[in-house]
Design goal:
Elements (H helix, E strand, L loop, with lengths): L6 H6 L3 H9 L36 H5 L4 E5 L8 E4 L4 E4 L3 H28 L3 H22 L4 E2 L4 H14 L13 E6 L2 E8 L4 E2 L5 E3 L4 E3 L4 E3 L4 E3 L4 H33 L1 H7 L1 H30 L3 H6 L17 H10 L12 E5 L33 H13 L19 H14 L1
Antiparallel strand pairs: 1-12, 2-3, 4-9, 5-6, 6-7, 8-9, 10-11
């Protein structure tokens, strides 16, 4: 018999404890034959006897579902505030548009009555240029109204979270020396414009220091540059970018109202010469309705136009006039006025058109990936885990010989769970010399 056996013979040799397990133990569901070059996932042995202490790097379904999914959206879809957008962000208005629809109805309705009842008679008896001029004036009024209502008044973008945190850090650093019981100073910064100190106030909603002449509109919930007022009749704020269109709208509407009111009176007078005044009113109910509408709207529209003409001549806004920012009581002069009516009017009405800083139709990325929560591993596909055991798993026939040695050694070292420990003998208490003598005498007597 050849004593020296090859490694292949040692590989095929089966240890006696494995044969015993195969005969007397039921087969385990998880112990399947594993090729020699593969690694066990749970606390097993690699080929060579090394233990697996790391999880295998494999991508699961949760990892695949956690991939970020983004899509491109327009910036107007994510803009804060209380504005509404139409036509893919080209039209910008306030949410409260009921009064704006009333303005449209009054203008269109009154002009329709004028073209239906007055223009046919006046074009024949006076001049055909009357309806032509009225049509041009009506188109100009509608154009200025829509331009004022649908344009960006000069909304300032809100600060990003990083910018807001940076501004807060600057403010906190400036208020370090304030005592604990004292109220911190107001958040104001001073700038100098034309040798005049102007205060820049901090907006707690937009998290920015507003530029000069800017204010926060409570209805639209936005900061507007050179804020004049919020006009419900046009359904929008009036600010730096649409103030000239608002003024042209009020002026042209005043002219249109005066024009219609004047020729309504002319129409009634010309017809009353032949038919009488009362009969004329009965024959032309549309004219009577136009006279009533124009009479009640004339004073308000003309008065509003005159008030804004006064403000333009001073290069002042409605908001500044209400607050009395540059009134003579405070002895503070308006740093924006040129001290000349013509120059002030040219700056407000003929100045450059400022671009919008919102970039409403710009593209941005939006994260639409669903929130992934770690789920418990299912029974069908358990998640691989790392365990540390003192005894290895039962090997198969592909286990190498050095593995057998480790199995035998571990079997000898680790006792079987079924084995019972021998009871520990109790140590008797220490005896005294008297008890020892008595026990010895008792033994002698018995002997």
């Amino acid at each position: 018999m050849n004593v020296s056996r090859s490694r292949s013979d040692l590989w095929m040799q089966q240890p006696p404890q494995l044969d015993y397990c195969r005969k007397h133990l039921p087969p385990a569901a998880g112990f399947l034959p594993i090729p020699p070059n593969t690694e066990r996932k749970v606390g097993g042995l690699r080929p060579g006897g090394a233990r697996c202490s790391e999880e295998p790097k494999s991508r699961t379904r949760d990892d695949m579902s956690a991939v970020m999914i983004t899509r491109k959206v327009r910036k107007w879809e994510k803009l804060p505030g209380k504005n509404t957008f139409c036509c893919d962000g080209r039209v910008m208005m306030a949410r409260q548009k009921g009064v704006f629809y009333l303005t449209m109805f009054l203008i269109i309705g009154t002009c329709s009555l004028f073209f239906a009842f007055e223009c046919p008679y006046l074009a024949v008896h006076l001049s055909p240029a009357i309806p032509v001029f009225a049509a041009l004036l009506f188109l100009f009024v509608m154009a200025m109204l829509l331009r004022t209502s649908f344009s960006d008044p000069g909304v300032l973008p809100r600060a990003l979270p990083e910018e807001a945190s940076f501004i807060e850090m600057e403010i906190e650093a400036a208020n370090v020396n304030v005592p604990a019981g004292q109220r911190p100073p107001p958040r104001i910064r001073n700038v100098q414009i034309n040798n005049q100190i102007v205060k820049l106030k901090y907006c707690y909603t937009c998290k920015i220091f507003r530029p000069p002449r800017a204010s926060h509109c409570s209805i639209c919930d936005n900061c507007v540059d050179r804020f004049d007022h919020h006009c419900p009749w046009v359904g929008n704020c009036v600010g730096k970018r649409n103030y000239r269109y608002f003024y042209l709208f009020t002026m042209s509407l005043s002219l249109l109202t005066i024009y219609i009111f004047t020729f309504d009176i002319v129409h009634v007078v010309m017809r009353s010469v032949d038919n009488g005044f009362l009969n004329t009113l009965k024959e032309t109910p549309g004219t009577v309705l136009e006279l009533l509408v124009c009479f009640f709207t004339l004073w308000s529209v003309v008065g509003l136009t005159g008030f804004h003409t006064y403000l333009i001549s001073l290069n002042q806004t409605t908001n500044e006039d209400i607050k009395g920012s540059w009134s003579g009581k405070n002895r503070v002069q308006n740093p924006y006025s040129h001290k000349n009516i013509i120059k002030n009017c040219c700056e407000v009405l003929c100045g450059p058109t400022y671009p919008s800083v919102l970039d409403r139709r710009g593209l941005m990325l939006e994260d639409i990936s669903p929130s992934v929560t770690p789920a418990a591993p299912s029974s069908s596909n358990p998640t691989p885990q790392t365990t540390k055991t003192t005894a290895p798993l039962i090997p198969n026939e592909h286990t190498p010989d050095d593995t057998h040695k480790s199995i035998a050694a571990s079997a000898e070292e680790s006792p079987s769970p079924r084995e019972e420990r021998s009871p520990v003998s109790k140590v008797p208490p220490l005896a005294s010399p008297e008890t020892d003598a008595e026990t010895s005498l008792a033994k002698d007597k018995a002997h």
